[in-house]
Design brief:
Blueprint (H helix, E strand, L loop, with lengths): L1 E7 L2 E6 L11 E9 L2 H7 L16 E8 L11 E4 L2 E2 L5 H4 L12 E2 L12 E4 L2 H4 E3 L6 H4 L5 H11 L7 E5 L3 H11 L5 E5 L3 H10 L4 E3 L4 H7 L6 E6 L4 H9 L1 E9 L11 H4 L5 E4 L7 H9 L9 E6 L3 H9 L7 E5 L7
Parallel strand pairs: 10-11, 10-13, 11-12, 13-14, 14-15, 16-17
Antiparallel strand pairs: 1-2, 3-4, 3-8, 3-17, 4-5, 5-9, 6-7
Helix pairs in contact: 5-6
The protein binds zinc ion (2 copies).
């Protein structure tokens, strides 16, 4: 089968690999019907994910059909359409039992797929702990509607959940990339009095304005003034940092009111500084990222009910054998791209 593979820093290659086989009684093999490219894939390519194993098939955001299950898998069966969870978790350890599945103590626990074990930018993928890692897609939900449930949408959902948002709040979301927009969709479900989105790309700002007209959109220069103007207590009650640069990290705590919650969702390429003398007395609560992807069932239900719709995010589609081109467009943010759907059906026809 074709598998897009991390070879070395800066180098991914589409290569032939054997179709994966079951290795444990709790594994499943999934035929990938639609996958996507995530910013974290780019982080692997840039060498900023030290855990990533050279030779691994990348890709951790996908939906597919169960081909085969180990004898201890009970939640899914061959033929089921499923979302694959970005995280591998046992469901039994101290952290899993508390919903902190990102910190599962299993050797494969956490973000393993497409990083430490073979992922889904391929025709097939082996999913460990399939009862935890796979969620059945309701019949009325399409593959495309469900595509982001296991990763970026799970991240947005988790970020909104841990941020303790109330209806009196002004919420600032920094970054309107794919994860930022998914975060926005999930924050909107909490109905805060005001949502401000800060995005420096005019194209992405326009995307938010077009699709979510109730949201206030600002650029970084005006962000703190716009937040002040739209908040009741001298700053945002909740800030979600989804952009991941030095400037946006600083902006996150600067725009927060005293005693606010700052949820850091972004993955940074470099360490960040907390200037504690300047922040003294602001009494902020920081929550830092690493999605606990254990809400897929609930998210799929919200999609089924029409309360979350990520279809506008799918701006491009490519067959797997043209994935290089898909990466080039996604990485360089060409042609108004938000997310790319990758179909493992080769344009050569097999
Ligand atoms: Zn991802
Ligand atoms: Zn666990």
């Amino acid at each position: 089968m074709l598998a897009y593979t991390y070879l070395d820093k800066g180098k991914f290659e589409l290569m032939e690999k054997p179709v994966p086989v079951l290795r444990s009684s709790r594994d499943a093999i999934v035929r990938v019907t639609l996958g996507s490219i995530c910013t974290s894939d780019l982080h692997i390519r840039h060498g900023s994910v030290p855990r990533a194993v050279p030779g691994v098939t990348v890709g951790h955001e996908m939906v597919g059909v169960v081909e085969q299950t180990g004898e201890d898998v009970t939640a899914v069966k061959p033929g089921d359409r499923v979302v694959v969870n970005v995280e591998t978790f046992c469901g039994e350890c101290f952290f899993c039992r508390r919903g902190y599945v990102n910190n599962c103590t299993d050797p494969d626990g956490g973000w393993a797929l497409g990083c430490r074990i073979d992922g889904g930018q391929a025709e097939f993928v082996r999913v460990p702990y399939a009862d935890q890692g796979l969620t059945k897609i309701p019949d009325s939900v399409t593959d495309e509607q469900a595509l982001f449930v296991g990763d970026v949408l799970a991240t947005g959902f988790w970020a909104a959940r841990i941020s303790d948002i109330s209806e009196d709040d002004t919420v600032l979301i920094i970054g309107a990339g794919p994860t930022g927009i998914c975060t926005l969709l999930c924050v909107m479900l909490k109905r805060p009095r005001c949502i401000v989105v800060c995005e420096k790309s005019p194209e992405r700002a326009a995307f938010v304005m077009e699709h979510y007209p109730d949201v206030i959109v600002t650029g970084p220069e005006d962000c703190s003034a716009v937040v002040l103007e739209n908040s009741l207590h001298g700053g945002a009650d909740v800030v979600l940092e989804v952009a991941g640069t030095d400037e946006t990290f600083r902006m996150a705590w600067e725009c927060a009111r005293p005693n606010a919650t700052v949820t850091v969702v972004a993955l940074y390429d470099s360490p960040q500084v907390l200037p504690l003398p300047q922040m003294y007395g602001k009494n902020l609560t920081f929550k830092t990222g690493g999605v606990d992807g254990c809400d897929c069932r609930e998210i799929l239900q919200l999609i089924e009910e029409g309360r979350i719709d990520t279809l506008p995010l799918v701006t491009h589609r490519f067959p797997l054998d043209r994935i290089e081109e898909a990466y080039r467009i996604f990485e360089n943010r060409l042609d108004g791209v938000i997310k790319v759907a990758v179909e493992p059906i080769c344009s050569s026809g097999n």
